[in-house]
Amino acid sequence: MNPHSGEIGGQKYRISEDDAAGLMQHHPGSSTGVNLMLGKYKPSSTPGTSRELWRTGTVAYSKSAAAWSGAPPAKVRAMHTGPGSTSTRVEWRASPTATCAPGVGYLVGNSFPTMVTNTPFPMQPNSWDFSAVPVGSYRLCVSIDPYNTVGETSDSDNTVGSLFGGFVEVKQ
Q1: Which of 68, 100, 131, 160 could form a disulfide with 141 if both were Cys (CB 3.0 to 4.6 A apart)?
Q2: pLDDT (tens digit per residue) in 73-119
Q3: Strands (E), the chain
Q4: Residues 156, 100: contact at Cβ < 8 Å?
């Protein structure tokens, strides 16, 4: 069972961490297959009150200062379902297109977390590097296991991105 996303009538969906936590409480056993997934929801101790962190807003990164103008983008939450633990690569990319897919856009950060079954793992990249990114506005995309090194039951929930273009504005 993959409690975080799936497909109904050809439409993909992703549920919030609140709903996933509730499902795991009612069905705590891990599945027999391994699945990695990413979420961009703010966790909440009050059921039904989580919210998507990347829904709106633009953040700016100054290449000359090598720093964010204000707070960096919110952390994503990685999750591993199935037996054992998993270590894999996570990549953050600035995409000039509306597409968020592994390898699309400019690599701006990465991380190599070890995740334990059914334990959300909040993370940002080890460091941000926009030096190769031209000045402009980009969609921020994050992919877990972008090179498919971990055998999974589904790879469809391995990438998340900001909903609207211009989520990251890169300035000189």
Answers
A1: 100
A2: 888 888 888 888 888 999 999 999 888 888 899 999 999 998 888 88
A3: 5-8, 11-14, 35-39, 41-42, 51-52, 59-62, 67-69, 76-81, 85-87, 90-95, 106-111, 114-116, 121-123, 136-144, 159-161, 168-171
A4: no
Q: Where are the domains of the chain?
A: 5-171
Alpha helices (runs of H) in the chain, residue ranges in sequence order:
17-26
- Tell me which CATH code domain 5-171 carries: 2.60.40.10
**Parallel, antiparallel, or unpaired: how do β-strands 59-62 and 168-171 relate?**
parallel
Name the CA dihedral angle for 27, 117, 46, 20, rounded to a multiple of 10 degrees: -50
CA distance 111 to 129: 13
